[in-house]
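Internal ticket - ligand job 274, adenosine-5'-diphosphate:
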Amino acid sequence: MSPIDAPVLQVRGLSKSFGTNQVLRGIDLDVPRGKVVALIGPSGSGKTTILRSLNGLETPDAGSVTVGASHTTADGSAGKDEPSGVEHNLPPLTLDFSATVSPREVAALRDRSAMVFQHYNLFPHMSVLQNVIEGPIRVQKRPRAKVIAEAERLLDRVGLLEKKDAHPFELSGGQQQRVGIVRALALKPQLLLFDEPTSALDPELVDDVLAVIKELADEGWTMVIVTHELAFARQTADEVVFMADGVVVERGPASQVLREPKEERTQQFVRRLL
Ligand code: ADP
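stdout (structure tokens):
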């Protein structure tokens, strides 16, 4: 593998139980730089728990997560242009959950990945702009004027600059989710995580949000997307991973897994949704 293809995300042996309920049973996942992986599977199979583990919101019992390989090319120069100036030449960060993981390591993991939630999770008492700049200014300690300028550029890009002073309750679900996406982008993460980003939306609002995500994929962002929108996954994802009962049942190129799944469980699932 050439350095430029090194995975941005490497998950090994991730396991997690809630009480006696073993939700993840040794998950391995690789996401190469600039690639999109769609995570599909029945409700309760552990998809959200994986994403939350990648964003420091859940602490796995065992396994490891590595984010960000060094992406300099063989001649030592930086790799290809990154979306929106994302710093990709940080040394890789590995959290080994079989040992004790410190709050500082969790914070570092959260700094490299950003999550877009099913229910948007915007701060209701803050304006759109405040929602977007809060993380970069307060947590990442980046300069306020620069963060605001970037936030306004990103809001403009998704057609919401004129709503920057509005509060979330004044926006449609689709607009709130576009703010959720902008908030994630403003953190300049190496990895974008989407947890069923359109499943809370009225059907007529779904396409606008999916179009934004597709654009980000085309721009080269590295993403993991949990979704039930299989047609979208087929268009957007490079790889599809089908999970059931806390294990990966099947994985492969999106067209293969969605059109010609090898495993019977995948066949049943895909047939029902496509
Ligand atoms: P999916 O995203 O595939 O629907 P989840 O990762 O949300 O699956 O959930 C997997 C299982 O873990 C479910 O049985 C769910 O009830 C359980 N679970 C998730 N989060 C918690 C929690 N915080 N406490 C207890 N059980 C949980």
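Auto-summary: The pocket of adenosine-5'-diphosphate is lined by residues 18, 21, 23, 41, 43-49 (CB under 6 Å). The first strand starts at residue 7 and ends at 18.
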